[in-house]
Structures are given as C-alpha cells and as structure tokens.
Amino acid sequence: MKVGIIGASGYSGELLVRLLARHPQAKLTRVTSRQLAGQAVSEVIPALRGQLPGLAFTNSDPSEVAASEEELYFLALPHGVSAEYAKALTAAGKKVIDLSADFRLGSTSLYKEYYGEEHPAPELLAAAPYVQPELERMLGREAWKTAALIACPGCYPTSILLPLAPLLKSSVVEKDGIVINSASGVSGAGKKATAYYSYCERSESASAYGAPKHRHLSEIEEQLALYADADTVVQFIPHLSPMRYGIETTIVAKAKSGIEALYEVWNKAYPQETTPFVRILPSGTFPETRYVVGTNRADMSAVFDKRTGNFVITSTIDNLWKGASGQAVQIMNLASGFEETAGLL
Fold first, then answer.
1. pLDDT at residue 193, as a whole number
2. Cα pseudo-dihedral 247, 251, 257, 259, rounded to 10
3. N or C: which end of the chain has fewer CB within 10 A?
4. Which helix or strand (DSSP H or E) is residue 6 part of?
5. CATH number of the domain enclosing 109
C-alpha cells in the first residue's frame, strides 16, 4: 500500500518516516515539507542512509496530493492546517490519519474555547472517529476502521485515557476530584528554535506549564465523560521535564473499591496475550520513562493509599511513539488488516 506524509519535518513526521521506511506492507512514496522541499530524505534523516532511494521531500499543495497515487496519508501538521488537507484528501477518496488536534474534539465550541478560533472543517467532525486502539478493542468497536478520516489522540491524553478510562467506565474510581500530573520530554514542544527550549535553559530544570487549562484538557475531559457517562472535570497539570522523550503521568483518584478490583478491570480491558502495547505492572512497581522510550508501549500500575482512600495510578509512554507517530501507524495497521505490530517492533 502506497502511503504519504504531509508535514514530515517535525519530530512526529520524522518518526513516521523512519517507521514507514521499515514497514513490511506500507511503501512510503511521498513526503512533504515546505522547508525541506527538494532535499533527499536520507540526507535530512541520516539514520536512513541507504534507504528510501530516490525519495525526496516535496512542497505539495492540497490539490496536488489529492491527485496523487497514494492510498493513505498521515497528516503531521499544526492544528488549523491539517483540516485543509483533510478536506481535499478525503474528497479524493484517500484515507487520512490526522495527528493534529483538528478532529480530536466533537464540539466546535470546545475547539474555539481551547484553540481560540473557529473550527476549520466542522462538516468533517461527525465522520472523523477519535481512535485510541486499545480502548476501541475494549469496547468491541470496529466501525472506525472503515472511516476515511481518523483522529489520532494526543500524547498527554493517551497516557491518561489508557489507565483511567476503563476505571471510570467500571465505576472503580469516583469521577469527581481527579488530579492528574504529567511530565513530558522537551520533544513534545516540537522543533521550536527559541531560547526557552535550548539546552542551557531546559537542562537540569523542570517546571509546570499550561495550568489550569492546557489545550489537551479539552480532549481529556471530553473523552473521560464518554466513559464515565457524565460530565467529568479533572485537574490537569502538565510539566516540562529535562529529558528528550517520554511522558510520566500520575493520577490521583478516589477509590470506590479495592486494588484487586482495579487490576481486575485492567486485566479484562487489556488482556496481555492480545494487547501487545500495554503492560500492566504489579502494584508497587512504578513505570519509568526509560523503559518505554523508543517503543510503542504504555506501562502502568497503581497503589492504594489507605490514609486518603485514593488510588495513585502511574503510566509512562514515549510521547512520539505511543503518543503520536507509533500510535498512528498502529491505527493504520488495524484499519488496513495488517498485523497490529507491523513496523513497530
């Protein structure tokens, strides 16, 4: 299957190129980047030297890529830009997996509140399912696989929804009073050439940011409400951590049952023999980012605090793999009938 990437110059786009270069069933035949147009992919990404011969970055407009031969496109573009390509590509019969925020929210008013502008393609929202593969499997939903446009979850939401959504659905935790702290590697901010993201500024320094209304909060609360079957308000505090990759999330939620019930829910939601990208660790064993970086895996565990009556739930992912490009390839695999792990192990 011939595939293309629109916006391949950022961290997520570059990882998509590397994953698709080794994919056994998808052939990467088009990559676009305005700033890199005309340059060979193997020159820009030295890790791919000797691979993808003849493939160079192009500067394509939406109508040009819509007329191309590729069957599926990944959009690794900023919010507000993806929608223009999504409209042209879906109208031309292409399948699209969007890594931006343009189609993650079901509400245009919520989009305007958190992104400060009108939604660029409201007519496509209803037809663009939000797909977190393991949760779709837990719910037994398959219809999303035939959708022409699929929204790939954000990095912070992925680290939060995987452990928390099944617990809310099963009423193992209270929906009120949930506090979430997440620490992300600096690559989550993208390739911003500013002093704030320079090595001297970020090394040996961690800080909270974006509180109390980080953009991903809209996505987190909208999705959690679907599993809780009620409006869900959480306290979400993201942090920038002095590491290149990874997200560590800690969730504090009031327990409605014992730790055994929590693990029973998780084990039912994510059977280890059929869920290759979620690993449930024993209570008291805390996941670390260093063990998931460079993988499409989420590790998670929980402990019960008798003093407070709270569960303390922790999870780790690689923000560029499971939080973006790896998950996008996983979605492509499942939607195309490939092995779920193809190109990801």
1. 72
2. 40
3. C
4. strand 2-6
5. 3.40.50.720
Could you give the C-alpha distances from 190 to 16, 244, 253, 330, 331, in angstroms and in order?
Answer: 14, 11, 31, 22, 22
pLDDT recorded at residue 130: 98
206 pLDDT more than 80:
yes
Q: Which two tokens stand for residue 37?
A: 């147009």
Does 143 reside within a domain? no
Residue 149 in any domain: the answer is: no
191 and 305 share one domain: yes
Q: What whole-number distance in Å separates Cα of residue 29 and Cα of residue 325? A: 17
CATH number of the domain enclosing 234: 3.30.360.10
Is there a single domain that holds both residue 195 and residue 293? Answer: yes
**Predicted local distance difference test score (pLDDT) of residue 118:** 96
155 counts as catalytic: yes
Average pLDDT score over residue span 125-149? 97
pLDDT tens per residue, range 23-65: 999 999 999 999 899 999 999 999 999 999 999 999 888 999 9
- Separation CA 245–CA 321 (nearest Å): 9
Q: Which of these is catalytic: 16, 155, 162, 269?
A: 155
The tens digit of pLDDT for each residue in 85-109 reads 999 999 999 999 999 999 999 999 9
For residue 78, the one-letter residue type is P
Q: Is residue 207 domain-resident?
A: yes
Q: Is the dihedral angle over the CA atoms 203, 206, 207, 208 positive or is it negative?
A: positive
- Is the pLDDT at 191 greater than 90? The verdict is no
Q: Are 90 and 213 found together in one domain? A: no
Q: Are residues 167 and 109 in the same domain?
A: no
Structural domains counted in the chain: 2
Give the domain range for residue 236.
155-319
